[in-house]
Amino acid sequence: MEGNARFVAGNPLCRPTIAQVRELASGQSPFATVLACADSRVPVETLFDHDPGDIFVVRLAGNFVSDAALASIEYATAVLKSPLVMVLGHTSCGAVQAAVEYARTGIKLPGHMHMLVDAILPAAKACEHQPGDWWGNAVVENARLNARTLRESKPVMTQALENGHQIVGAVYDLSTGKVSLL
Ligand SMILES: [Zn+2]
After folding, report:
1. pLDDT in tens, 44-95
2. From ligand 1's centre to the CA of 35, what distance in Å?
3. Structural domains in the chain plus CATH codes
4. Half-sphere exposure of residue 7, counting CA atoms within 13 Å on the CB side?
5. Ligand 1 center–CA 40 separation, angstroms
């Protein structure tokens, strides 16, 4: 969060160098794991002002806990001992919008894209009758629900929590660059 504050203030400290890259070739010890959207406007290391080696990043459209995402997060948590997982949603997420549109219209996306909608639909439906902006609320709900899915995932993640690891949800605002914890 301190790194994000530096990024928002326009005072980033991190400038990855080839010397760092060489140093990291022998191993990694990321202090955090972030499950973020594949959206090109969510560059995780940049928006947290961190260098290569600091953050284990898993990205897929809609930042949900697919089996493959979970396997990667378990690896970071159990093998690399990364002590913090953040599920990072973002404002104006197209994948979340697709799920809201499907809940509204029932029109399916072609090819494999409907997998995204299926995964995000619970968050979209949970917000259907909430006051305010359905899309915006669903972005928050999707990050919250997927953080909960990770917290309840047995046995690796539940064991990690017992050992002091943390799992949090957050949302990145595309227009301000700010990350807000949920
Ligand atoms: Zn997105």
Report:
1. 999 999 999 999 999 999 999 999 999 999 999 999 999 999 999 999 999 9
2. 11
3. 2-91+142-181 (3.40.1050.10)
4. 23
5. 9
